[in-house]
Specification:
Elements: H1 3-13, E1 23-27, E2 35-39, H2 47-64, H3 66-69, E3 73-74, E4 76-82, E5 86-92, E6 96-101, E7 104-107, H4 118-123, E8 128-129, E9 137-138, E10 148-149, E11 162-167, E12 172-178, H5 180-183, H6 188-195, H7 201-214, E13 223-227
Antiparallel strand pairs: 1-2, 3-10, 4-5, 5-11, 6-7, 6-12, 8-9, 12-13
Keywords: Hydrolase, Magnesium, Manganese, Metal-binding, Protein phosphatase
GO molecular function: metal ion binding; protein serine/threonine phosphatase activity
Cofactor: Mg(2+); Mn(2+)
Length: 229
Amino acid sequence: MTTREILNKMKVKVGLGSSDPDSGKGKSKMSKNITHGFHLPDFWKEPADAVKRAYSKTDSNILEMSGELGRGGSTAVTAILVNCQKLIVANIGDSRAVLCKKGVAKQLSVDHEPNTEHEDIKNRGGFVSNFPGDVPRVDGRLAVSRAFGDKSLKKHLSSEPFVTVENINDDAEFIILASDGLWKVMSNQEAVNCIKNIKDARSSAKRLTEEAVNKKSTDDISCIVVKFQ
């Protein structure tokens, strides 16, 4: 069953027509007043562009709410699985997506580090410095070159994600989506090896976060595991 067919069935269930699979809204028939809405502009034709627009909109919303949320920022990694066959992965910063295929780790994201994008940062009026500290930082403050938010540094940062599309076949076993608190203490292959014999996805994510803590990770640790088999 295609994604469009699934969306159409969802719409029919809530009493909607099936003329437009890209947009709609509905209300549950349960006792609770639950409503939903969705809109997918050009996602089926140009999924990468649609994801980039979503990241841009998210960044704008975070900046607009900086008074409530604070002036800090965040990295991000996302994955969309279409028809159980096509995986669309996007990221900004050092949150990472790692796919396991036949037991071998394959990184699908790009770590956006200041030293690899120093020319772009310089062209925006910023600079990259190892002082203070021991890693390259944007304006001597932020250790990633792309992020949501970070209003005080926004002129020198990018929020455009790296986007890639990966075909999912029988070789694909699972994907790990995690923040840098995991990757600072574990290599891609170490993370894959840690959970390759665990069948349950939730237990796998818990195992990875526990292992990162055991390895004395001092950064934030967020982890999602999606099992394909």
